[in-house]
Amino acid sequence: MSELPVQESFRLVEQGMVYPVKNHLTVGILHAGHELTSTGVLFVVGGRQYRVGAHRQFVLLARSLAKEGFPVFRFDLCGMGDSEGDPQHFLEMASDLDSALAAFRAYAPSVKRIVIWGLCDGATGATTALTSLTGVSGVMMVNPWVTTNSGAAKVRIKHYYRYRLVSSFFWGKLIKGKVDIKGSSKTLLDAIKLVILNSIRGRAPATGLPEIVFDAIEKFEGLVSIVISDKDLTALEFHDKYNDRYGNSSNKQPRFNIVRVDADHTFSGEGQHAMLDEMTLDFVRKCHVNECP
Amino acid sequence: MTENATESLSASFLECTSGRIFCIQSFPLHCLGHSVLLVPAFAEEMNSSRRFFALMRRQLCESGFTVIQPDLYGTGDSEGTFDKALWHNWTADLSQLVQSHFRDSSHKLSVLSLRCGCLLTQSLIFSFDELPSPITLENLIYIQPEISGYDVITRLLRQRVARSRLSGKSSETTQLLWQKLEQGKNVQSAGYEIGSELAMQMRECRLNTKKSQAAATNQVWIEMTPDSNTDAITDQWTLHRISSQPFWQMHDIEPVYEVVSAITELFNV
């Protein structure tokens, strides 16, 4: 692997751009990195965030990668942030990704391989679009979204209520009469009812979305890194589904690296962003070395 | 909304006092000779209201306005980090954009500000006094203005206090965190590192509509939620009520087309 030269003056090479996706004008930001680096990173925003991310999460990660020489592209999906159009379902982002990659490659011609970095349903949507994209060598999925009603109920019982029972804050609130006992009990009972009903009916709790995502990453030939935050119920649901599918040694997928970390959904706690930054740099370097031995 | 009503859209970085400021600009097909500067809300409220401002920009552009939407230094896509942001520099950057506007075009200028952006706009207007020639705005529109910079920072600090209580560390209070800021230390809350200097500068900011009452021909104060504080309003301002969810606090994007249309109607052309 050729050593990546550090871009000293990266402040000067962040560039805004406007490009079309179908009939809509879309806004993206290129972090140029080093002009000869062949691995670029495409950020796919999740939830209702725009290309900057909660507390500028994506801006800071992109600058960190660009400082290491990796070109980065952040963009708004149609109907989000500054882009035109109406918001669309996260499983229908293939055109957006295709156009973003075309714009990225046009402005950073050295980029031959792409690492996709996605958060929440951005990770899920990007993964399911992989078959229609070319040149993707790695996918980093951070707190991916595969929530189903029954899955969410199970996770709530397993992780959230168990935590509440041992939380001094919860017991303090309960003693002071600040807990809505009726409302909380109903929510818990609803969750239990849903899980039992699904079990009696013999319905598999995870149908649809989790299978689509796991099938997609199995077909994908590049590297896959999955990061699960311990304080994020949607991520824990993904982790449960992942264990259902790959928990047995016979099903293990050596290409997938899944880690659980002490963080919230957007890594907003003290020290959490630095941890994510380090994991991101490690994975992108690994993808780069993998392709440039 | 119809497609292609915008003649062109630019996304570029402008050299300002603080550094490279990211700016979205929309140029209409049928130009009224009138520009609107959008001044954003603070921290996560800025993120949550990004879609609202995008729709606002588009609607204004369809009505013939040129729209200028900058990200403040250390926020959005602009250069710098949040902990290095300074209120005085934000004001200076906006002032520079306003002066460039009047130097480079003969357009009238209006300002539309949201939440903490209203406090910043007030600082901007005060800064006009130091300019060699007077500046008068056409429309000055405040949406659900923040009244006090102290309250804005305190609310952000409260998120840290809530988080520490949830994790069993209940010793932190907003008063203790303010003391840290007063001692020149930065405080991290909800993913934002609040710079001591920014906090001290914001603590001094309080909305005073008497002082800025002659800044524009048409001055409108929009109240959207019933809990807003309208005591600071003076006779020179028109109070206008538009019923809406507090979209600047919501994670999900609510359709705000009606709000956007109602606000556009308030502009004197």
Description:
The complex is a heterodimer of chains A (293) and B (269). Chain A has helices at residues 57-67, 94-107, 121-128, 149-165, 168-175, 181-200, 209-219, 233-246, 272-291, and strands at 14-21, 24-31, 39-44, 72-75, 113-119, 136-142, 223-229, 256-261. With 293 residues, chain A is of the alpha/beta class. In chain A, helix 3 (121-128) links the parallel strand 5 and strand 6 (136-142). Mean pLDDT of chain A is 83; it is low at 1-11 and 200-206. In chain B, a hairpin with a 4-residue loop joins strand 1 and strand 2 (20-28). Chain B is built from 8 helices and 10 strands. Chain B has 269 residues and is an alpha/beta fold. Chain B folds into 2 domains: 2-147 and 207-264, Rossmann fold, CATH 3.40.50.1820; 149-204, no CATH class. Chain B has an 8-stranded mixed β-sheet with strand order 1-2-4-3-5-6-9-10, sandwiched between helices. The mean pLDDT of chain B is 91. Chain A binds chain B through residues 11, 14-18, 23-25, 27-29, 47-57, 59-60, 80-84, 87, 167-169, 266-270, 273, and chain B through 3-4, 6, 9-13, 19-20, 22, 24, 43-44, 47-48, 50-51, 54, 58, 75-77, 79, 81-82, 163, 165-168, 170, 188, 190-192, 251-253.
Largest sheet of chain B: 8 strands, mixed
Strand numbers in spatial order across the main sheet of chain B? 1-2-4-3-5-6-9-10
First-to-last CA distance of chain A: 5 Å
Counted beta strands of chain B: 10
What is the fourth-level CATH superfamily of the largest domain in chain B?
Answer: Alpha/Beta hydrolase fold, catalytic domain
Helix and strand composition category of chain B: alpha/beta
Q: What is the string of SSEs of chain B from the N terminus onward?
A: EEEHHEHEHEHHEEHEEH
The proportion of strand residues of chain B reads 15-25%
Rg of chain A, alpha carbons:
20 Å
Q: N- to C-terminal separation of chain B?
A: 21 Å
What is the tally of beta strands of chain A? 8
Spans where pLDDT lies below 50 across 5 or more residues of chain A: 1-11, 200-206
Helix-residue proportion of chain B: 25-40%
The CATH class name of the largest domain in chain B reads: Alpha Beta
pLDDT averaged over residues of chain B? 91
